[in-house]
Structure prediction request, 184 residues.
Amino acid sequence: MADETPEPTDQPDQGTSIEPLGDDEVRDALPEDLDAAGYVGPYLFPNNNRRRIPAVLYWAIALGCVVLWFTTRDGDPVLVNAGFLWAAAGLAVVGTYSFVSGWNLDVDERDALVVATTQVGFPVGHASAQMGWRGLLSRPTWRILLYSAEDPPAKRGLVLIDGVDGEVVEWFVEDNPEDWSDLA
Prediction:
């Protein structure tokens, strides 16, 4: 029996359609956990002290490596050798860093907005808060972008507020350089 492969043709398959879908036919949606439209109530920003949980796990694994090395060091070091001590040391260092950088976030975005409003010295209209981290130990810092209450805003400011103690780290205010005259 001969191999019967169809000859390629330049004609598209008559059974398929290559027409694009209309906007009313597209059915794309956000997953429920990302859909903010149905969310009711204040949003609670996750606390940085959750970093201490993996720190304890790193330390527990490091301790397990040391105990395993100590109990089998007199035997044949094929599977358990000095590498377990090196791994334990690395895990202990990473655990220590994770524990130290697990700052307790005592200032939420509303408190940071109040501090920022008093710092800039003008009535605030629109504002935005973003969590960032600064320094080697990842100290939590709120970045507050503020616009004055006029329409359109005459001033804008950026205030960095420490998330642990609520102190102003840096701040900057300027006349709003954006031209919004064509939006009126």
Remarks:
- Residues 52-72 form the longest helix (21 residues).
